[in-house]
Amino acid sequence: MSPWSPPLPASLSTIPASTRRPGPGYWKSTIIVTYAHTEQARLAALAALQILDTPAETRFDRFTRLAAMTFGVPIALVSLVDANRQWFKSRTGLEAQETPRSISFCSHAVEAREMLVIEDAALDPRFADNALVTGAPHIRFYAGQPVYSDGQAVGTLCIIDRAPRAFGAEQRQVLKDLAELVEVELNHMKAVGARMLAEQALKSLNTELEHRIAARTVELEEQVAHGIRIRQQLEEKQELLDAVLESIDVAVVACDADGRLTLFNRTAREFHGRDLKAVAPAEWPQYYSLYHADGRTPMAVDEVPLVRALKGEVVHDGAMVIAPHACKPFTLMASGRPLRNAQGKTLGAVVAMKDITELKASKDRLAESEERLRTITDNLPVLIAHLDQDHRYVFANAVHQSWLGKAPEQVVGQTMVEAFGEEYSAQQQEALKDAWEGKASQCEHDIVRKKHIRIVHSTFLPHLRDGKVVGVYILTTDATAARMHERNLHALAHTDSLTGIPNRRQFELALQAAVQRAPQRERAFALLYLDIDHFKQINDSHGHAVGDMVLVEFARRVRNVVRSSDLVARLAGDEFTVLLDEVGSPRDVELVAKKIMQAMEAPFIVGSQAIAVRTTIGIGLADAPGVTAQAIGELADGALYEAKDMGRNTFAIARLSEALVLDAA
Predict the structure, then answer these.
(1) Which pLDDT does position 194 carry in this prediction?
(2) How far is it, in rounded angstroms, from Cα 214 to Cα 210?
(3) What is the DSSP letter of 495?
(4) Dihedral (C-alpha) 412, 414, 415, 418: value to the nearest 10 degrees?
(5) Do the Cβ atoms of 250 and 267 come closer than 8 Å?
(6) Cα–Cα distance for residue pair 54/508, rounded to 1 Å
(7) What number of helices (H) and strands (E) belong to the chain?
(8) Which of 204, 229, 334, 651 could make a disulfide contact with 305, Cβ separation 3.0–4.6 Å?
(9) What is the pLDDT of residue 245?
(10) How far apart are CA 567 and CA 400, in angstroms?
(11) How far apart are CA 660 and CA 665, in angstroms?
(12) What is the rounded CA–CA span in Å between residue 556 and residue 568?
């Protein structure tokens, strides 16, 4: 089993009987939730490989060629199953680059997480009418073994024949073995990427360490070299020099021109766990437990810093480890040089070693902390970014890939306009400007990608240093669900649940708006009150269910008659209203009323019943200044009663201008 394959599931026999018999509906909901969660994790594992839609590669093609030749089939594929398609990283004997997932054989193998063998697809009810069976490439035989990444089945290595065939246990094992080789290759670049990141982190660490100890190391090198010269010239300075060397926290070792150790200070003795001893240079690596920076590889004689310096090399910040038996190891930075007199004759060599064990451990902890932080930010469902003082991205989490289609490494170094375009930047410009002025700000905007609109909420936090803004942090959350919920609530509050047209609340808001617009408009507006004639008899004779269907059809017919700019609403029961905007004359209103009545002439067909439905209409025409919602409502209501008095199935109009004249008289 490869390291990317999934762990074996626990046996169901270990589950108590009481928990193995859930109530009705449990398994259905559990399977749906579990599948959605598993599919999401599987697609995430596939995306993490960053292999979809990449060019063909020999490292995969060799496996499809080998599979086709081994099994004697015309078609062999390395198939990766995406959300809505299967895409072929490698294909032998097939022109298509991808096929819909809905007709994919490999999707079944991925979902089952085990080898799928179809010896004759024409006899298998799951695939007999599949387009890939009935049409090109005319699949009759199929065998596919899932391949895994991060424990998820992301695709298959599959073989296809156009004729039925048997597939024995030995052949299945060979296909499984080849699939595991594909799996190793599939995950290879991911492992290489992780190793490169680690190497880059180590390089950054070494660079940082070099900067921090460079000045101190140079100073110590000069002190040691000066002390040796002083000792050679002035014996009286020897005691002072010894005291200095014994007190500093830098290990100093020196040798003469013949390689005999002449100096081994206190710190050196502590590092090595040994005193100075007449040991030949060839024995230094073993006797003093000298290793390379990895702490595991022993140093060769020519690699020992003191030997290199003795041979004339200037050693600068060479990393090494001293790991004496039964003692803690020390990680050191060693610098050394040859010692020469005024005439250039080699007198020996000296090396200073600075303990960086704790510093390295701190750097390692910092790197781990940064890695944890990156892992957290990459897995939060939030866009997290940081702009520097040049307004360029210095950090962007992995969510930018899924939300905006760009990986973090593509974003870093670019401005927002360069990375995501003028339209995306313009939506946030005002809030971002406030952040650069030192004020926390926020805004709501849209992210449009692949015809999908995501409503997001962005918060901008200024990064202050010494009272100056040196950058801006950007946190963006998905507000789509909340906004859609608000819109749904608004629709529920303003829509009649039976007919689907605006309700009384929406009508009252629209009427008030029309009243407020009236002084600025030259043309009048009109309000129509409509009652269904004898609607109670319809309910009593045919039942309320039929009555409800009559109301729905009535609303539909009225809405089809008026303009799209006019409002049709249901107040309650069989009471409807129409708000006509921009009416030129009373005749225009009469024409609308007649059209509504004509629309009701055809019987209402409800099931097998034909029902005659008529309506009576009262119209209030706001054709004079000073109109109010109450006044126009009273006019329409009065006109409705007048029309009913006229025998129903008719309409009456009351004009505001005439009502004002009567009131004045």
Answers:
(1) 65
(2) 6
(3) B
(4) -130
(5) yes
(6) 59
(7) 22, 24
(8) 334
(9) 77
(10) 43
(11) 9
(12) 9
Q: Which two tokens stand for residue 620?
A: 């209030």
Q: How does residue 23 score in pLDDT terms, banded at 50, 70 and 90? A: very low
- Bridge-based pairing state of the strands 524-532 and 261-264: unpaired
Q: Indicate the burial class of 31 (C-beta count within 10 angstroms; 0-12, 13-18, 19 or more).
A: exposed
User: CA-CA distance, 600 to 615, in Å (whole number)?
Assistant: 8
Q: Element (H or E) spanning 650, and its range?
A: none
Separation between Cα atoms, residue 527 and residue 638, nearest integer Å: 12
- Is 616 in contact with 531 (CB distance < 8 Å)? yes
Terminal C-alpha separation, the chain: 101
Helical (H) or strand (E) element with 404: helix 399-404
Neighbours of 166 (CB within 10 A): 9
Which positions ≥6 away from 294 have C-beta within 8 Å?
Answer: 321
Using the 8-state DSSP alphabet, how is residue 415 labeled?
A: B
Enter the pTM of the model.
0.35
Q: Structure tokens of 222?
A: 């000069």
One-letter amino acid at 458 equals S
In order, the DSSP letters of 211-231 are HHHHHHHHHHHHHHHHHHHHH
User: Which pairing describes strands 346-355 and 250-256: parallel, antiparallel, or unpaired?
Assistant: antiparallel
The confidence score (pLDDT) of residue 555 equals 95
Residue 228: closest CA among 220, 314, 272: 220
Kindly tell me if the per-residue pLDDT of 411 is higher than 60. yes
C-alpha–C-alpha distance, residues 528 and 553, integer Å? 18
| pLDDT tens digits, 594-629 | 999 999 999 999 888 899 999 999 999 998 888 999
SS3 152: strand
**Could you say which DSSP state residue 275 is in?**
-
Mean pLDDT of the chain: 87
| 3 state DSSP class of 537 | helix
Kindly calculate the radius of gyration of the chain based on its CA atoms and give it in whole angstroms. Answer: 42
Classify 67 as helix, strand or coil: helix
> What confidence tens digit (pLDDT) does each residue in 26-63 have?
444 444 445 566 899 999 999 999 999 999 999 999 99
If you average pLDDT over residues 206-221, what whole number do you get? 75
C-alpha to C-alpha distance for 553 and 538, rounded to whole angstroms: 14
Take residue 145 and report the two structure tokens written for it. Answer: 């073994």
**C-alpha closest to that of 528 among 475, 567, 489, 494:** 567
Q: How far apart are CA 592 and CA 588, in angstroms?
A: 7
CA 352/CA 235 separation, integer angstroms:
22
Check residue 432 and give left, alpha or beta (phi > 0: left; psi -120 to 50: alpha).
Answer: alpha
Average pLDDT of 481-489? 68
3-class secondary-structure state, position 299: coil
Does residue 161 carry a pLDDT above 50? yes
pLDDT above 70 for 282: yes
Q: How is residue 473 written in tokens?
A: 């942090």
Q: How far apart are CA 215 and CA 207, in angstroms?
A: 14
Q: Per residue in 539-577, is it b (16+ CB within 10 Å) or e — as a string? A: beebeeebbebbbbbbbebbbebbeeebbbbbeeebebb
Cα-based distances in Å from 374 to 378, 588, 629: 6, 68, 60
Pairing of the two strands 468-478 and 441-449: unpaired
